[in-house]
Amino acid sequence: MIYSDRIPLAFLMLTHQKRKLALSLSGIALAVLIMFTEVGFFNGLNDSQANLPPLLDADLVLMDEKKEHLNKSERMNRHRLQQALVFDEVVTATPLYDRSGHLRNPQTGQLKSIDILAFPPDSIPLRIDGIERYAEVLKRSNTILYDARSRSIFGKIDAGMEVELSDRKYLVGGLIELGPNFSRDGHILMSDTTWKTHFMGDSRDEITLGLLKLRPGTDVESLKERLSEQLGPEVLVMTPEEIRIREIRFTTKSTPSGAVFGIGLLMGFAIGVIICYQILFNEITDQLPQYATLRAIGFAQGYIVNVVMKKALFLSVLGFLPGLVGGIVLYAYIQHYTKILMYLTYPRIGLVFLLTVFMCCLAGLLAMKRALNADPAELF
Asked: For 102, 239, 301, 323, which has the most beta carbons within 10 A of its beta carbon?
């Protein structure tokens, strides 16, 4: 009894049959992979939908109060920028225009909807690598930039090509990388001059967002309150980070996608509990004589509980590792072919690991009754 803790009995019982252990771990790894997939899609939805706010080169952003999310096409009057410039702390106020257009695939001739962003090229308001070198290019008439990370439905588009966008011909002056989301398959960038010529129509004074740059050392929260009072309730004043959080909250709570992936995560967890329970139950059933022997030579129920729970913990760790490797491969594959942002961060890995441990421990508790009921008198 004194030496019982020195013998890794749970591990030895678990690894006694290597082939059976491999099959058991593959079942748990499958449940882990399902949970990684659901977590990945859930966060990929949020990360992709909220990919624009962190790219806004602004300290504060103005938008129409009816614009519940960035994909909603509510606009506000351009004179709101002039109202904001009255404040000494505001250095620049840059308009950003946003709408959808139809880009023709050069190879297939099919028309697909694509998002169009426009702005003054002298004050580029987006933090996109290499975009500054295209400032002069955008000033040319009928010249655009194409998002190289757009989905493949738009075909192969390179710099120097002529493309058809909303029934007009444009020259692709260069390529940038922005990336699609669940709502938008790709992006076109152009100057506000080209935008006003071809897309504004009767709404020349309407903009989608107003991007404000402030003087260094400005109390952002104080200015935000004063701007809100000046502009009235018709205009929202937010930081890019607040917009990002709002986008995530909207996709999580107000769209069916968030609920679907949340339910999928619970289903993966439930599947894992069932798989792990079956594995442990079968393990205990096959090794019932060993448990009965432990009871016969005087080991208390607490020791039996300890052995079963250790087996559950070993299964959770050993099954998690191949599931993690599968998750890494799956994330890379999905991101490559769908362009959805699939970030496998340490907190997300930690979440799935904790769910895996809890899943296996819960299964161990459910299966434990079988081991505790092992009666030496009936077996010998």
From this structure: 323
